[in-house]
Amino acid sequence: MSIPVFDHFCAIDWSGAAGPRQKGIAIAIAAGGAGNTAPVLVKSDAAWSRTQVLAFIRDTLPANTLIGLDLGIALPFADCGAYFPGWAETPANARALWALIDQICTNDPNLEAGSFVDHPDLSRYFRRHGGREGDLFHTPGANDKRGRFRLTELAQQQQQCKPYSNFNLVGAAQVGKSSLTGMRMLHQLNDAIPVWPIDPLPESGSVITEIYTGLAAIEAGRPPGRTKVRDYAQLNEALTQLDSQPVKHTGAIDDHSSDALLTAAWLRKVAVEPPRWAPKHMSLQIAATEGWTFGAF
Q1: CA distance 255 to 269
Q2: pLDDT per position in the chain (297 positions), as tens?
Q3: Where are the beta strands (DSSP E) in 72-172?
Q4: To bridge 183 with a disulfide, which of 61, 81, 98, 129 should be the other Cys (CB 3.0-4.6 Å)?
């Protein structure tokens, strides 16, 4: 397998929170080439907005950048043979899913996705606040109370991660809102940058991937269940494990920023490993419908 040579590695800690700006968004970039310099945060004049991030990815990032987005790029499909089994209008693949979400949420501001999860047919598949769990939230016949999972999330579990279903919108660790808002952004990028593995890996140029910052932290030596880093000393210990130079700061750091910094350095270290681009359980059908989390074997 031929892997593109990336000059930069960008990790984006995304947020599905409501509102025009999200304090939970952080962006970091690690330069490629010799030296493994410390990753750096990309600052905004205020908290980032999702539309700002879209423009940053499309217009500002340099060529040959591997871009990691901390969100799910699709919903579970393989377990039921459909995203929304029993619904006549269920999309056939991930790109059609993105288009459907963006269409239904046309009037939702700030790339939000409230209209999608509150849709009279689609709400049946989600677990929402207020004890509102749809009757189709679970895989039929399954006993897993956490809901439906993609194959990549099952692979994450084998690497000591604790994934959540993208149909779950409840709880501090849920990723459903982030994933749905992120899919709107991916649709609005309008094919400007390929999204692996939904799109084939190009021979050169920039590529967008799904990341899981907890996986990067575990591979940098953080204990499972304690992947969040909230001071620079711990961050630099983890960066050392990734062959990266330390960040020259001390004291406290918010976990969104540390997630982005750590994962940018992790992308730089592992992107050259062919098995990361050829997960053993990822077929062409899975790639087109569910996508995959970069780094999950």
Answers
A1: 21
A2: 789 999 999 999 999 999 999 999 999 999 998 779 999 999 999 999 999 999 999 999 999 999 999 999 999 999 999 999 999 999 999 999 999 999 999 999 999 999 999 999 999 999 999 999 999 999 887 778 899 999 999 999 999 999 999 999 998 889 999 999 999 999 999 999 999 999 999 999 999 999 999 999 999 999 888 889 999 999 999 999 999 999 999 999 999 999 999 999 999 999 999 999 999 999 999 999 999 999 998
A3: 127-128, 132-133
A4: 98
Cα–Cα distance for residue pair 81/100, rounded to 1 Å: 18
Instruction: With 0.90 as the threshold, say if the pTM is over it.
Output: yes
Strand order in the sheet with 65-69: 40-41, 26-31, 8-13, 65-69, 207-210
Domains of the chain, by residue range, sit at: 1-297
Q: Is the dihedral of CA 220, 154, 297, 174 positive or negative?
A: negative
Helix (H, G, I), strand (E, B) or coil at 69: strand
